[in-house]
């Protein structure tokens, strides 16, 4: 795949969805080719911050040439904090779309779980919009700040878990699956590593294919920093050892390909 070029994207809108969670629509050429599960590398305008911030794609509007990113601010004086202060007509450099997305064709004729947890919730939205199969959307939150809930409800049956029990099932996404006696024969998931470990184990037990996005562990997003290496079953052609670079080889993998 040819290297993507950096471009200057334009902010179309920005809003806060929950505490520390922001939604930004940007106008970018990436909207023409982006697929669910891919991400953008977004640069700040602060010259002291050299590495971009990899942000997953939440929604794609090809007609308007726009992409929506929903992200968590990780602290003061960070790249994400700078993004949260941007307003309409501001510009920022981006590269994308990057990475391998979810294989949509694998779900055709099957019943699918689409699972998101924490900041792994946003990329599940575009997946829910594009995937052509019977789907059950299971999303996990910390509390009652269930951002994107309405959008999910427009795209399938939605089941929610919250850590504090304020909405839906008390516990995690696996608790929601058990409580509602849900079944599927293929899984797509994105979220924190403990959640993905549990989902991988469940998929193995049920003997069903499972695709997981490991983007939570990315750093630069362009293959430069090697901070996102994960152990793999096969040797990486780049380093000739048993690992894969999440940003280059993923972020989506078949669960049996990688160790968590």
What report would you give on this structure?
It is globular and about 50 Å long. The two termini are 27 Å apart. Strands 4-3-7-1-2-6-5 form a seven-stranded antiparallel sheet. Strands 11-10-9-8-12-13-16 form a seven-stranded mixed sheet, with helices on both faces. A two-stranded antiparallel sheet has the order 14-15. It has helices at 79-84, 122-130, 149-153, 173-179, 193-206, 246-249, and strands at residues 7-18, 21-27, 39-42, 53-56, 59-61, 66-72, 91-98, 111-117, 134-141, 157-162, 169-170, 186-190, 210-213, 229-231, 243-245, 252-254. The protein has 260 residues and is an alpha/beta fold.
Summary tags:
260 residues; globular; seven-stranded mixed β-sheet; 17% helix; single chain; alpha/beta; 16 strands; seven-stranded antiparallel β-sheet
């Amino acid at each position: 795949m040819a290297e993507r070029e950096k471009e200057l994207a334009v902010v179309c809108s920005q809003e806060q969805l929950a505490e520390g969670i922001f939604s930004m629509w940007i106008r970018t050429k990436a909207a023409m080719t982006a697929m669910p599960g891919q991400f953008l590398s977004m640069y700040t305008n602060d010259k002291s911050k050299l590495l971009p911030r990899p942000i997953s794609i939440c929604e794609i509007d090809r007609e308007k040439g726009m992409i929506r990113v929903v992200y968590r601010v990780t602290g003061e004086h960070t790249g994400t904090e700078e993004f949260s202060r941007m307003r309409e007509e501001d510009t920022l450099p981006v590269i994308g779309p990057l990475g391998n997305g979810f294989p949509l064709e694998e779900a055709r004729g099957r019943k699918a779980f689409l699972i998101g947890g924490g900041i792994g919730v946003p990329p599940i939205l575009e997946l829910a919009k594009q995937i052509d199969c019977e789907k059950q959307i299971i999303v996990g939150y910390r509390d009652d700040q269930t951002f994107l809930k309405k959008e999910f409800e427009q795209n399938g049956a939605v089941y929610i878990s919250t850590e504090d029990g304020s909405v839906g099932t008390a516990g995690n996404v696996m608790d929601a699956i058990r409580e509602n006696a849900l079944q599927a024969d293929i899984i797509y998931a994105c979220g924190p590593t403990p959640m993905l470990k549990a989902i991988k184990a469940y998929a193995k037990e049920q003997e069903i294919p499972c695709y997981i996005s490991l983007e939570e562990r990315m750093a630069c997003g362009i293959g430069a920093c090697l901070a996102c290496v994960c152990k793999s079953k096969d040797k990486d052609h780049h380093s000739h050892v048993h690992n894969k670079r999440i940003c280059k080889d993923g972020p989506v993998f078949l669960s049996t390909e990688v160790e968590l």
